[in-house]
Amino acid sequence: MKNDDWIQWRFGNTLIAEINKRDDRITVYDDVLDGRFRNRLKLDKQTGSLTITDIRTEHAGDYKLQTNSVEKSFNLFVFVEISVLEGDSVTLNSDLTEMKDDDLIQWRFLTEMTLIAEINVTADRITVYDDVLDGRFRDRLKLDKQTGSLTITNITTEYAGLYTLLINSAWKFFILHVFVEISVKEGDSVTLNSDLTKIDVDVIQWRFWTENTVIAEINKQVDRITVYDDVLDGRFRDRLKLDNQTGSLTITDVTDEHAGDYVLIIMTTKQSLKVFRVSVYGELLKINNDTIFFKSCCAAKIIYQLSL
């Protein structure tokens, strides 16, 4: 910033931070708006950039930067990220305690741009559109008439994606990850199924999500199949097999360092995700009808402790 520069940051129409170089003044107004920004604003005195820490959905909205030479606007979306195991239920919370007389709530499965539920208090109407999208939500949606929160029961991977809640004119966004849970014995192989019968998409990419690392991909656009088995200190070396017809991934001779979360990203006209949580167990030992998991290297120690 130059000696005569000034910068103002606004959330909507509310001033939240400013720098006046001429008066050598830096001010953060983090107690405005019921203190939602308290202890969360950091203003860079050299560049004037504004950082918001520990983001909440109440911080979503329109931000405006105004200086003595330029104006710039930002629209900030805040996603609530939820992970759930296949077969479980999940509730997407509206954060309302009760609805007002003129409230309108609409839930959309935004991945498919489809309205799936709504409450119109003025018309005294509650509607669940569970027959849309080939009936994938049929008998699985429960809408709380007091709060507007939406519960999805008996989750499968086809429910993973982006959901939006519109309350009158305010938005709330949810990203739902659905995990397929797989247990595999150490030394065995495990196959992560893509559920595709043939590859008619642009790109299939496998990531070891625990380390956010690409380990395999098929790119149909350039007709290339690649296995990155030397990443992560070579823990996957000579262990990855990628099915060139379905895109399914097999990991052979599994050890506990292969345990974790894997994500399949399918890219075509739109992107879809499938997530796997792999756990690795050791040998089985039966003592007094109880089953105990252990690694062979620790077997003698465990038996000794149990005998005591």
Summarize the structure.
By secondary structure, the protein is mainly beta. It has helices at 132-135, 231-234, 299-307, and strands spanning 6-11, 14-20, 25-28, 41-43, 50-52, 61-67, 71-76, 79-85, 90-92, 104-109, 114-120, 125-128, 141-143, 150-152, 161-167, 170-185, 190-192, 203-208, 213-219, 224-227, 240-242, 249-251, 260-267, 271-281, 283-287, 290-294. Strands 8, 10, 11, 12, 15, 16, 18, 19, 20, 23 and 24 form an 11-stranded mixed sheet that branches. Strands 3-2-1-6-7 form a 5-stranded antiparallel sheet, with no helix packed on it.
Structural features, described:
The chain has 308 residues and is mainly β. It has three domains: 6-76, Sandwich (Immunoglobulin-like); 79-178, Immunoglobulin-like (Sandwich); 186-281, Immunoglobulins (Immunoglobulin-like), CATH 2.60.40.10. The chain has three helices and 26 strands. The protein has helices at 132-135, 231-234, 299-307, and strands at residues 6-11, 14-20, 25-28, 41-43, 50-52, 61-67, 71-76, 79-85, 90-92, 104-109, 114-120, 125-128, 141-143, 150-152, 161-167, 170-185, 190-192, 203-208, 213-219, 224-227, 240-242, 249-251, 260-267, 271-281, 283-287, 290-294. The longest helix has 9 residues, at 299-307.
